[in-house]
């Protein structure tokens, strides 16, 4: 064991650990000599074990001091587990229907014990690749985002409470710096980690590195990401961080959580749905077979923003006379002014959402850590064709985001580019 009390798990060690950890042992049943353990981590950073005992199953997640998908050559603080557990607990309190319960957290071991999100839940990204529809997805995700973002913002909180929460999450600086690098910097310069479908996209990747307007816009977003502590974000809300069935939606993996701009979370989700949309032609069994499915993805994008807008502003109305410090009732109690303020806030948030969504799309095509939506398209020429459409759309969205005023205009622009 290291001097800081940390030990990377092995199966044997995990069983010994569970035997002396009552809150976890209680979930599994008493006979801990007959446990089934399976490591299922298919994410980029950590190790995830499903442990099944006589009376139930749990998930154990451990952070090691490096990035799993790259290896020990890219060290990364294992303190990320503390921030993941903290966000799970905080977001779980605000939205228990869509966040798995944390049973146990061990800061020294960087280990979280949590609810096993049981089959038939699967990772949303895999469902989207398989062409499966989730009729409640937009409703559930808009609920999760509206509640977690509203209740951790100055629309609800005092600046005293907000500042102390911000101070805690400033500690997650290494994970934020990783995002700064791989989302806002590397795709726009030569970097050893960048990758794209070569040779098909060589010129496209170069064009990103040569595009001054794009660089101007991404600098603005990077500064907002680093400087704006608007709400407690999930920080990595892509379709690989969501587990679904047609009736249930569970948000996992918030280790990148910090106080940042709300549009970064909403954009991550919408941007990844757009990536899923553009990958569909690569999964189509025959020409046009995914036409209706693509329409469902577009409807989900539309519903997500519109429902989010409705739910978020409803929370704002409900708490407008509360202790939220952003718009004091003594100044903003005039209904006309309230409407103006809300309109401006939501318009700015919409443009942030589109900008961050676009930046998240670009990094998945010409940066590090690509997405399975495209990676699973075996024929490289076909994959590149799908990726190029997504990349071109993302570039337009990033540069022109302020010209979009309603989500249906974004959906129409996607359809136009795909025609
Ligand atoms: P990483 O931090 O490395 O990205 P994730 O949190 O995304 O790890 O988890 C990796 C995989 O482990 C997920 O894709 C999912 O299949 C599985 N997983 C993670 N948490 C749970 C859970 N609570 N219940 C069931 N499966 C889970
Ligand atoms: C090396 S970048 C790894 C990526 O995986 C995580 O899910 C984050 O998106 C991060 O950017
Ligand atoms: Mg993950």
Helix and strand topology:
Layout: H1 11-19, H2 22-28, E1 36-39, E2 47-53, E3 56-62, E4 66-67, E5 71-75, H3 80-94, E6 102-106, E7 111-115, E8 122-123, H4 124-129, H5 137-151, H6 159-169, H7 173-185, H8 202-210, H9 212-227, E9 231-233, E10 242-244, E11 249-251, E12 258-260, H10 262-283, H11 291-318, H12 329-332, H13 335-366, H14 372-375, H15 380-400, H16 407-418
Antiparallel strand pairs: 1-2, 2-3, 3-7, 4-5, 6-7, 8-10, 9-12, 10-11
Helix pairs in contact: 5-11, 7-9, 10-11, 10-13, 10-15, 13-15
The structure holds adenosine-5'-diphosphate, 5-S-methyl-5-thio-alpha-D-ribofuranose (SR1) and magnesium ion.
Residues 43, 240-241, 253 line the site of magnesium ion.
Q: Top keywords for this entry?
A:
EC 2.7.1.100; binds 5-S-methyl-5-thio-alpha-D-ribofuranose; binds adenosine-5'-diphosphate; 419 residues; binds magnesium ion; globular; Phosphorylase Kinase, domain 1; alpha+beta; nucleotide-binding; S-methyl-5-thioribose kinase activity; three-stranded antiparallel beta sheet
Give an account of the 3D structure.
With 419 residues, this protein is an alpha+beta fold. Helix content is 53%, strand content 12%. The chain folds into 2 domains: 105 residues, Phosphorylase Kinase, domain 1 (2-Layer Sandwich); 297 residues, Aminoglycoside phosphotransferase (APH), C-terminal lobe (Aminoglycoside 3'-phosphotransferase, Chain: A, domain 2, Alpha-Beta Complex). It is built from 16 helices and 12 strands. Strands 1-2-3-7-6 form a 5-stranded antiparallel β-sheet, sandwiched between helices. Helix 13 packs antiparallel against helix 15. The longest helix is centred in the C-terminal third of the chain and has 32 residues. It is globular and about 60 Å long.
């Amino acid at each position: 064991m290291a001097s800081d009390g940390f030990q990377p798990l092995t199966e044997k060690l995990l069983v010994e650990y569970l035997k002396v950890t009552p809150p976890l042992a209680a979930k599994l049943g008493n006979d801990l000599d007959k446990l089934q353990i399976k490591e299922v981590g298919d994410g980029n950073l950590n190790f995830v074990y499903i442990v099944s005992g006589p009376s139930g199953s749990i998930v154990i997640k451990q952070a090691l001091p490096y990035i799993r998908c790259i290896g020990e050559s890219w060290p990364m603080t294992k303190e990320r587990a503390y921030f993941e557990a903290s966000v799970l607990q905080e977001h779980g309190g605000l939205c228990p229907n869509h966040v798995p319960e944390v049973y146990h957290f061990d800061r020294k071991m960087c280990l979280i014990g949590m609810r096993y999100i049981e089959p038939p839940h699967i990772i949303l990204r895999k469902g989207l690749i398989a062409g499966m529809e989730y009729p409640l997805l937009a409703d559930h995700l808009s609920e999760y985002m509206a509640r977690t973002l509203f209740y951790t913002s100055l629309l609800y909180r005092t600046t005293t409470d907000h500042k102390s929460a911000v101070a805690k999450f400033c500690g997650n600086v290494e994970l934020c710096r990783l995002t700064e690098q791989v989302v806002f910097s590397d795709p726009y310069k030569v970097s050893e980690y960048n990758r794209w479908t070569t040779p098909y996209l060589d010129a496209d990747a170069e064009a990103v590195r040569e595009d001054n307007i794009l660089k101007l816009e991404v600098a603005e977003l990077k500064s907002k990401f680093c400087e704006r502590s608007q709400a407690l974000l999930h920080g990595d809300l892509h379709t690989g961080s969501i587990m679904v069935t047609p009736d249930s939606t569970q948000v996992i993996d918030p280790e990148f959580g910090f106080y940042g701009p709300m549009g970064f979370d909403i954009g991550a989700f919408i941007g990844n749905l757009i990536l899923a949309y553009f990958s569909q032609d690569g999964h189509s069994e025959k020409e046009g077979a995914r036409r209706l499915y693509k329409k469902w993805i577009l409807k989900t994008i539309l519903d997500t923003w519109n429902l989010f807008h409705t739910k978020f502003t409803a929370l704002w109305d409900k708490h407008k006379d509360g202790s939220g410090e952003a718009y004091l009732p003594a100044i903003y109690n005039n209904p006309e002014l309230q409407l103006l303020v809300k309109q401006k806030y939501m318009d700015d948030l919409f443009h942030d959402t589109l900008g961050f969504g676009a930046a998240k799309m670009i990094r998945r095509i010409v940066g590090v850590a690509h997405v399975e939506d495209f990676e699973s398209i075996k024929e490289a020429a076909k994959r590149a064709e799908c990726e190029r459409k997504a990349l071109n759309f993302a570039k337009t969205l990033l540069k022109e985001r302020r010209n979009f005023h309603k989500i249906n205009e974004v959906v129409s622009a996607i359809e136009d580019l795909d025609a």
